[in-house]
Design the sequence.
């Protein structure tokens, strides 16, 4: 039995196998790979929270070694005084965090993240 170049092998009167021309097989493989790519892209968009880190911040943090709290404060156009007040900490403590002299507790960093409207993990500077 042949339909558009496809041959069927039957077992007990039912199709058991299909033999397809190689060009059709290649198109089928490409279509499956495209479907996998589309599914991965849909999953990415569904899970995307929309948060983006500006390139300038990435450069200044990675290359310049600046503290992310300072970078995000400047990005949000906040003064040290304004951010300290919003986070409920002193200006001196905020300054020490920004200059790397103190790390800040999890509670403090969470308050800063809320005030800066960023995920907490972007404010955590890795210790070397």
Sequence:
């Amino acid at each position: 039995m042949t339909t558009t170049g496809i041959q069927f092998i039957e077992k007990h009167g039912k199709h058991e196998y299909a033999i397809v021309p190689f060009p059709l097989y290649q198109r089928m493989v490409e279509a499956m790979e495209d479907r996998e790519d589309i599914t991965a892209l849909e999953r990415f968009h569904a899970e995307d929270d929309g948060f983006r880190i500006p390139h300038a911040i990435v450069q200044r943090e990675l290359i310049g070694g600046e503290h992310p709290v300072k970078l995000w404060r400047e990005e949000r156009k906040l003064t040290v005084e304004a951010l300290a007040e919003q986070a409920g900490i002193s200006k001196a403590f905020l300054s020490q965090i920004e200059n790397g002299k103190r790390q800040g507790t999890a509670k403090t960093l969470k308050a800063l993240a809320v005030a800066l409207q960023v995920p907490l993990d972007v404010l955590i500077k890795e210790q070397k």
Q: What stands out?
A: The chain has a mean pLDDT of 92. Helices lie at 22-47, 55-62, 68-75, 80-87, 91-98, 106-116. The beta strands are 2-3, 6-11, 14-19.
